[in-house]
Amino acid sequence: MANKIGEQVAMTTKNSDKKNIQTLIKSMEPQIAKALPSVITPERFTRMTLTALSSNAKLGSCTPTSFLGAMMAAAQLGLEPNTPLGQAYLIPYNNHGKMEVQFQIGYKGLIDLAYRSGEVELVQAQIVYANDEFVCEYGLEPKLVHKPADKDRGEPVKVYAMFKTKSGGYGFEVMSMDDIRNHAKKYSQSFDRAVSPWQRNFEEMAKKTVLKRVLKYAPLKSDFVRGVVQDEAIKNEISEDMYTVSNDIDYTESYTEVEFTPATDDNGEVINNDTEAVNS
After folding, report:
1. Closest to 214 (Cα-Cα) out of 176, 254, 253, 163
2. Model confidence, pTM
3. Reduced to 3 states, what is the DSSP secondary structure of residue 243?
């Protein structure tokens, strides 16, 4: 499948403009159908990706192979990219002078994948504010209690994520906002940049961070792990198993990583942002 699609990409896209990518997507519907889970029809997924191209002009200027790599990754995980659901995103990246598309899983996408494993009954990530009632105790008798204040909740002070299995097991992870900021500064070189999601959508990024931590301890199937590995990757090859395709992000000193989760308006609609990742 990889060779066949690679040849089709070369034949259809001599220039990486939006029209050529749209033409390629439509011509590849049979191959896309083979990669899709039952929850998303080929027609629906094609419509969503074309909508993503129309809503963000920079996606149309990215390499067709990286766009299709991100699209296939989303398809195989059954996550809808660039929609108000917040499951996953196709993000333009300036990867050392070459515009490519990065696939990112949203925190809601992580929750969806965890539920699909069939082992968990409940997965949540929440923000704790200064005036909320909150108790966290570890040890032989762990305890987690969160009662939100009825009004004037104050500033965010902590973020936590938890899971409960169908067999009665559970786990939770709590991080202070200082812990979250220190984590972001360590792992995201773009933390202080205005275009960074840590500046634009701090709470959503915080939820994703703590979810990743706690779900390491959940009894999830290997499909979940294979999905998380593909988060924040750029892939320029197409395969029936995108997990096996290598990540082409160049993590050299001149590269600055920029994660980005599109903002939404009061109605939950994704706000058009032509933000891209940049080199330092």
Report:
1. 163
2. 0.77
3. helix
